[in-house]
Each structure stands twice: as structure tokens, then as C-alpha cells.
Amino acid sequence: MTASVSQQLLDLLGIDWPIIQAPMAGTSTPEMAAAVSNAGALGSLGVGAMTAAAAGEAIKSFRERSDRSLNVNVFCHRPAVPEPVREAAWLERLRPEFERVGAEAPTSIREIYTSFLDDEAMLGTLLAAKPKVVSFHFGVPGEGRVRAFREAGVVLLGTATSLGEARVLVAAGVDAVVAQGYEAGGHRGTFDPDAKDDRLGTLPLTRLLARKLDVPVIAAGGIMDGAGIAAALRLGAGAAQLGTAFVACEESAADDGYRAALFSDAASHTVMTRTISGRPARCLANRFTALGARVGSSEIPAYPIAYDAGKALNAAGKRVGERGYGAQWAGQGAPLARALPAGELVAVLAEELGAA
User: Fold this and answer.
1) Domains in the chain: boundaries
2) C-alpha to C-alpha distance for 129 and 203, rounded to whole angstroms
3) pLDDT value at position 1?
4) CA-to-CA separations, 148 to 127, 142, 321, in angstroms, rounded
5) Which residue intervals of the chain are DSSP H helices?
6) Residue 250: how many CB atoms within 10 A of its CB?
7) Does the global pTM surpass 0.90?
């Protein structure tokens, strides 16, 4: 990525720095996104776990704090197919964990999030709000939805973990591709969680996509400071997306247990697990990831049905002071985390980038 093409991406996104705060559904907040955007980077809201109404309120809250660019991220996963036998067996498998924290396991679990592929209300909300950017995770919506966003003047980003996924996104009409390396925290953006995953790291994936695609590439995964951003830019990225770096910001929705774990030895031992939600995701080492090491993926219900059980177990644990069942998503760069206000962190990252 030449300097001129990198500048074209900044101009397209309406930002000053090649820095994007990852959407991080459940952790990002309007306050965080606004602080990031006001500092010249791209603030993001992950609305994949929200209703359309809640997403609309979040966007409104952002706009009360900032008139800069906003990225709104949606989940484009295949809707889950209920499997009562597997789900019942999974709840039985989790029963000892619920009993450990003095709670009863749920008698049933359900699909708790609606995929954007089926969410007409979310489409309407986003077309009405017209954020500067809409980004896709777990896939890409149909041609009609992409066309509607483009006609509304919305910039489109899509996450890819391989060259094949990236080419699908480009063919669908995205303006830039987020190259998510295996180091990244949170959910893998793989289109099919059951397909073979080559587990490409951020550096080779970024370089590969920068060489093979005709659209800008945004590097994501394990990047925590300005030196990491500079390295990504040298490999051809037009910008870098950072998630774990923002988890400890005061504007983050991360709870006390999550924050404490981030600054503990667990940060040096992140684990890719599908036990918590039903899809592969990188998490700080905790009781839930340890459980996941002892079960096969065929035992775990589909995403996000499994997440219903995971959230219930985490809530039960927190009631008695057990924080080890949380979805404490973090990338392999977690030991480099800093606790700074989001706007200040962007300023530090920009200063470090300049020095690098």
C-alpha cells in the first residue's frame, strides 16, 4: 500500500489517522467510539448483539458526542438450526459448573441474536441513520442489502481470514477488507466456522491481501501500539484495526473481572475456543477456556445458541464473585494492554506511529 493509497483510505473513511477501534460487540460503547473518532481515528460500534431499536439508540448517543465518522458492525452468520438433543446434552455437560456457583442450569437455550442476513429492522435502522461506515463480520449480506448501502453513500468494510473470503467480499462490493489474523481477540471472522481454517497470522494475511486485492486492506490482530501499526502499513495495509488495546479504556463496557484478567497472567495465555459462544473466538485463559480444552467441537451447540448457556453461566458466576466464566475476549498482544482514556490512547498511538 503506497502512501497515496493509504491517504485515499483515510479520505474515504473521513479520518486523520490510520487507526480503527474494533467494533467489539458487548465491549464497545457510544462513549468509546465518540472519543476515538473525536481524536481522529475511526470509532466503532458492534451492534451484532443488539436489537434494531438498541442500535438506533447507540448511534444517536454517539452523534450526541461526535460529528465525526462512525463504523457500525453487523454479524452476517448463518442463522442457527436448533438441535434439541445436542443442546440438552450441552446443558447437562455444564450442569456441574452451574452447581459449582450455586445455580441451576437452564432447561433450554435459544438463538439470542438475529443474523443481519434476516434482520429487516436492523437494515432499516442503518439505512435511516446512514453511519459513515458499515462493516460485516462472519460473511457478507446479499446483493440487495449491499446495493442499498452503496446507494445511501455508506462505506462498506468486510472481515476476511483468507484470500478466498476476501475475494468474495470484493466481488460483493466492499470498499476495503479487514485482514483478521489468527492472533486477533474475539470471534474469528470465518464465513463457515466448521470449514478448514488455515489460521493465517496477521502479517502474512495482510501482505497476501495487499498483493492480491485491488481494494485497501486493514490489518487486524495482535496490534497494540504505534510500532505495530507502522509494521502493518509497511506490509501494505492502509490502516490497522485494534480491539484489545481499547478494552481497558475507561469508556469500555468491560466489567471489573475482565479488566483484572487482562492485567493478569491470563493475558499471556489466550486461547481460541468455541465453548463460550459456539464459534471460534480468542479469549483470556479462564475457567471456561479450560473447560473447552476437554470437549470436542461436535458437542457444542451452534452459535449463538451456545452463547445463551455461556451468558447464563457467566451471570451465575458473577453473582457469587466467580469471574472465570466471562467472554473475556483478547488477542495475543494482550500483555501490552494499557489503561488509558480512549481519546488519549489514540493520541499516544499516533505519536508512537510517528516515531516508528
Assistant:
1) 3-79+114-249+337-355, 80-112+271-329
2) 35
3) 44
4) 8, 10, 47
5) 3-13, 30-38, 52-63, 84-100, 120-129, 143-151, 163-172, 202-212, 226-234, 244-247, 256-262, 287-292, 305-319, 342-355
6) 12
7) yes
Q: Encode pLDDT of 107-159 as tens digits.
A: 999 999 999 999 999 999 999 999 999 999 999 999 999 999 999 999 999 99
The CA–CA distances, whole Å, from 172 to 17, 136, 187, 239 equal 27, 11, 22, 21
CA distance 109 to 88: 9
Matching residue, cell 491481501: 209
- Record the cell numbers describing residue 145, joined without a space: 442489502
Residue appearing with cell numbers 504505534: 226
Coil/strand/helix, residue 26: coil
CB atoms within 10 A of CB 269: 14
Cβ contacts of residue 88 below 8 Å, gap of 6+? none
d(CA 108, CA 91): 8
Which pLDDT does position 6 carry in this prediction?
A: 80
In single-letter form, the type of residue at position 41 comes to A
For the record, the C-alpha cell of 118 comes out as 434476516
Distance CA(227)–CA(354), nearest Å, equals 9
* Phi and psi at residue 144, to the nearest 5°: -65, -40
C-alpha span between 307 and 310 (Å, rounded)? 5
* CATH number given to 3-79+114-249+337-355: 3.20.20.70
Residue carrying the nine cell digits 502479517: 203
Residue with cell 497515496: 4
Q: For residues 120 and 321, give the distance between their C-alpha atoms in angstroms, rounded to a whole number.
A: 39
Neighbouring C-beta atoms of residue 69, cutoff 10 Å:
22
Three cell numbers written together for 212:
492480491
Contact 127, 149 (CB under 8 A): yes
